[in-house]
Amino acid sequence: MLIQAHNLSVQIGKNRILKNIDLQVDRGQIVTVIGPNGSGKSTLLKMLIGALQPSEGEIIRAPGLSIGYVPQRLHIDETLPMTVQRFLQLPNRASTDAIRETMAQAGLPELLRQQLMSLSGGQLQRVLLARALLEKPDLLLLDEPTQGLDRRGTADFYRQIEQIRQSLNCGVIMVSHDLQVVMRRSEWVICLNGHVCCEGKPELVSSSAEYRVLFGFDEDDESLALYSHRGHYQGSGDIREAG
After folding, report:
1. At what angle do helices 121-133 and 151-168 cross, to 10 degrees?
2. % of the chain exceeding 90 in pLDDT
């Protein structure tokens, strides 16, 4: 077990953002969190990295756990001259060899001397990924890392994550709207809308009534029939395979 959350709730002012969230991620596992805008996905990641304290519940981290975090977006002053290499050396100066290694892992070994502000959206996301990999993370958290990428760029990015998961044997938590790609590449999916609506293996979550209601699919919609549907829903919020 890398990280475990029990009964997490968070309230900001009078607004309860999340309620009674349970989650566990093991080494080598990919867990994806999906849900509509405002469902609390980014808030959950902020609690897991320690940037936000839960109002209730607890988070248990493995001793010495190293976490790499890729934010949804990065706001940079467009007038600031900074190369990719300089950006990756902040705030802690990493060695050139370490930076080259992580850029290769992220799939862009040739961009170290390029200005940060000249990068495309996909290139910048991979630089942010490289920055997260400098910590040699046991657990990699990605907050909608493919937002703004086209379908091909999205597929390439997720393939890169799979290679990283295998090479580092790290756990991965991804927040994503890319439903079809998520369903193909995750091992466990959590549908979030302020609480856990349903969770389980991707093929079983995609067949649940809660999932279809959350994303606006009617009962006859087969557009997400990516797997054979072999499960049934049990009221606890988990999706279980039929025996």
Report:
1. 10
2. 51
